[in-house]
Every structure is written in structure tokens, then in C-alpha cells.
């Protein structure tokens, strides 16, 4: 008897829009976003997700949004999707504890329908350097398969939280070890398409836990993919100088105003930093 996938519910319920051609290119950026976060989405659309220049885009961003119990918010999402066509609406309830379903749904859609060469998963309070990242992937990245890179956590921060009131609580039943394997923070990690496919394969064998980024780390380990630590993914938004935007690919924790400033710095860095040596490795 064929074993039923533990993801049947999520896969079956998905409402799969047909991808645009630009979603099948070099890089697809999946941005987790809560239904009510229309402002961060708007800011992202006019800052780092806006395509600059006349060239055909090599990349595209898509927001991952689930179902909202609030009818007004749910209708707003439908309108946004009609206007911009950049939202993947899943049929799971959009709650923090369902973030893992959101990301796995996004991966499944990407692997089945889009098949870009690379996938970046990030959040709607993050800045993505869309001026450098696609170029870096084309010109400098040497890890074409099995790529999984981001900002890693120290060993102490990989302890499984057993306190039931915590938003990161995981029971022993759901994950029996005391420590997660090394994994990249959910603020932003990049995967090659084959890595996403192998992670989806592993997901059929591993019970989901609500800590999305740790879960991806568990799946990657199971699939034999080694996570690569890269300082190009910044967990903190300090006052990065313009030339840092030649190097950084993701910055976490930006307000809408800070997104505008970061976009300005990113564009300035194109011409302002010709003296600084280009770093051509992930590190
Ligand atoms: C996650 O979404 C599913 C499907 O909509 C729902 O049945 C479940 O209650 C949600 N879980 C949480 C923890 O919100």
C-alpha cells in the first residue's frame, strides 16, 4: 500500500498560481509574510524587489502568505495578488507555529513549477541585495549543487527549547535530541535547486517541527547537505557603510525607512566603491 505523505494536506490544498517566466530564471526569492503585513510588502516592492534598469530580470521575489481568519485582510490579499501577481497564497492557517508549513509549501511550488537555479528564503523585515546577489551567483559562486548557505547559530543557540510557553517550543515527541544540527537562520538562506529537491525528499521522512529554520537544517543533514556559514547574511542591522553593500546579501531587521536607506546604499555602492576589492567567496 502506498504510504500517504504527511504533507498531503499542505500539497493538496495549495492553490498554485502559474509562475511568471521571471520566476523560472536564476534566482527566486521567497519572502515569508503575515497576511496583515501589507505595508512591509509595499515597501519591499518599491525598494529591493523593484527591478532597476532595462535588462530582463534574472530574479523574482514572491511573498508566502497563508489564510487569514479576518475577512477584510483575506480580501486585501486577494486584491494585492490580482494587482501585483507576486503572492503565493497557501491554504494553511497563517500562524507563527505554521511557518514550517509555509516554507515547505513554498519549496514544493518552487521545485514543481518554477525550477530556478537558486532559491533564497527570507522574511519581510529583511533587506536583500538584489544588485549583487544574482551577479555573485552567476560570476563567483562555485558551489553549484548541494548549496545551503546562511548565518549559522552557535551551539548554545541550537539547544531545543522545551519550555511550553515559548514560541519555539518543541516536544520530545516531535524531536527527541537536545540540540539541532548546524542550520542557517531563517532571516535568509540560499539553496541550489537540487538542495531544495533533496530537502523535500527528506521531509517525507521527518516529522515537521514548528521551528522552520531548524527543521530545514534537520532535513539538510538527513539529505547529506552540509550547511555553509557565510558572513554575507547579517542578523543585525547596524549602520552598514555603503561599501558593505558590495558584500552583504541579506540584512535582518529593517524598518520601512531603513529599507529605503538600504536601497539607496545598494545603488550607491555600484559606483562608489571601485577601490575596495571584491570578495568572491561566500565567506
Ligand atoms: C496550521 O494550519 C492548518 C491548516 O489550515 C490548521 O489545521 C492548523 O490548526 C494550523 N496550526 C497552527 C498551529 O496554527
From TrEMBL:
<dbReference type="GO" id="GO:0006629">
    <property type="term" value="P:lipid metabolic process"/>
</dbReference>
<keyword id="KW-0328">Glycosyltransferase</keyword>
<dbReference type="InterPro" id="IPR002659">
    <property type="entry name" value="Glyco_trans_31"/>
</dbReference>
<comment type="similarity">
    <text>Belongs to the glycosyltransferase 31 family.</text>
</comment>
<dbReference type="InterPro" id="IPR029044">
    <property type="entry name" value="Nucleotide-diphossugar_trans"/>
</dbReference>
<keyword id="KW-0443">Lipid metabolism</keyword>
<keyword id="KW-0325">Glycoprotein</keyword>
<dbReference type="Pfam" id="PF01762">
    <property type="entry name" value="Galactosyl_T"/>
</dbReference>
<keyword id="KW-0472">Membrane</keyword>
<keyword id="KW-0812">Transmembrane</keyword>
<protein>
    <recommendedName>
        <fullName>Hexosyltransferase</fullName>
        <ecNumber>2.4.1.-</ecNumber>
    </recommendedName>
</protein>
<keyword id="KW-1133">Transmembrane helix</keyword>
<keyword id="KW-0808">Transferase</keyword>
<keyword id="KW-0735">Signal-anchor</keyword>
<dbReference type="GO" id="GO:0006493">
    <property type="term" value="P:protein O-linked glycosylation"/>
</dbReference>
<keyword id="KW-0333">Golgi apparatus</keyword>
<dbReference type="GO" id="GO:0008499">
    <property type="term" value="F:N-acetyl-beta-D-glucosaminide beta-(1,3)-galactosyltransferase activity"/>
</dbReference>
<dbReference type="GO" id="GO:0000139">
    <property type="term" value="C:Golgi membrane"/>
</dbReference>
<comment type="pathway">
    <text>Protein modification; protein glycosylation.</text>
</comment>
Amino acid at each position: 500500500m502506498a504510504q500517504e505523505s504527511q504533507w498531503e494536506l499542505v500539497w493538496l490544498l495549495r492553490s498554485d498560481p502559474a509562475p511568471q517566466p521571471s520566476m523560472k530564471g536564476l534566482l527566486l526569492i521567497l519572502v515569508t509574510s503575515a497576511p496583515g503585513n501589507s505595508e512591509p510588502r509595499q515597501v519591499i516592492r518599491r525598494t529591493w524587489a523593484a527591478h532597476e534598469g532595462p535588462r530582463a530580470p534574472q530574479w523574482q521575489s514572491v511573498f508566502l502568505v497563508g489564510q487569514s481568519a479576518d475577512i477584510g485582510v483575506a480580501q486585501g490579499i486577494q486584491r494585492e495578488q490580482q494587482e501585483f501577481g507576486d503572492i503565493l497564497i497557501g491554504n494553511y492557517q497563517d500562524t507563527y507555529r505554521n511557518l514550517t508549513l509555509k516554507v515547505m509549501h513554498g519549496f514544493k511550488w518552487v521545485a514543481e513549477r518554477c525550477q530556478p537555479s537558486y532559491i533564497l528564503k527570507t522574511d519581510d523585515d529583511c533587506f536583500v541585495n538584489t544588485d549583487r546577489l544574482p551577479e555573485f551567483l552567476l560570476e563567483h559562486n562555485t558551489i553549484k549543487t548541494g548549496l545551503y548557505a546562511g548565518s549559522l547559530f552557535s551551539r548554545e543557540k541550537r539547544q531545543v527549547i522545551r519550555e511550553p510557553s515559548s514560541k519555539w517550543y518543541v516536544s520530545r515527541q516531535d524531536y527527541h535530541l537536545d540540540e539541532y544540527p548546524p542550520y542557517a537562520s531563517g532571516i535568509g538562506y540560499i539553496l541550489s535547486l537540487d538542495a531544495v529537491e533533496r530537502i523535500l525528499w527528506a521531509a517525507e521522512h521527518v516529522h515537521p517541527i514548528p521551528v522552520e529554520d531548524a527543521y530545514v537544517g534537520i532535513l539538510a543533514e538527513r539529505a547529506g547537505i552540509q550547511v555553509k556559514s557565510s558572513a554575507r547574511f547579517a542578523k543585525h542591522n547596524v549602520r552598514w557603510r555603503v561599501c558593505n553593500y558590495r558584500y552583504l546579501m541579506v540584512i535582518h531587521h529593517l524598518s520601512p525607512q531603513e529599507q529605503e536607506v538600504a536601497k539607496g546604499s545598494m545603488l550607491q555602492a555600484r559606483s562608489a566603491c571601485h577601490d575596495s576589492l571584491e570578495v568572491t567567496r561566500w565567506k
